[in-house]
Amino acid sequence: MGKAKGFTLIEMVATLVLVGIMAVGMAYFLIPGIQGYLFAQENAELTQKVELAMTRLTRELRECYTCDGSEGAISLPFVFENTLGNRQISLSNGDLKINGYTLLDKVRSADIFTRNSTDPLKIKIELDVAHQQGDRILTFTTDVFPRNTYQ
Question: Helix, strand, or coil here: 82?
Fold first, then answer.
């Protein structure tokens, strides 16, 4: 009679336990890398969306005829006139809109400042946008110098 060949049940269970321990150990090292990748990917997408919205706002405000208001923050909704006619910038339910069309979502706050003592013609736009990964708020700012304001 020959010897029986194969694995015993104890050997199979021991192997599965060892493979499980190794998988948990590998996941411990892989999860931060995956989270970093997801954070970077969303950061790139968010930055592109904000850049597009800021470019549109800059273009709209650069052609503004009626942006020579008083010093300080401009409250939203902000109605102004430019070469395209009457325009309105508003923020509702996290959506930054111009004339009812959404420019950007996930906006926590949008501030537009005009006429400060150091540079009376400059309009400053500041957007706080929510970042999904890590529940962070990113702040983006830009300055606009309207062409059609005269002193």
Answer: strand
CA pseudo-torsion sign 84, 90, 96, 101: negative
Please state whether the predicted TM-score (pTM) of the whole model is above 0.85: no
DSSP H helix total and E strand total for the chain: 1, 8
Residue 137, helix vs strand vs coil: strand
Enclosing H/E stretch for 122: none
Give CA–CA dist 4/81, Å, rounded: 91
| Mean pLDDT taken over the chain | 84
Question: 63: left (phi > 0), else alpha (psi -120 to 50), else beta?
Answer: alpha
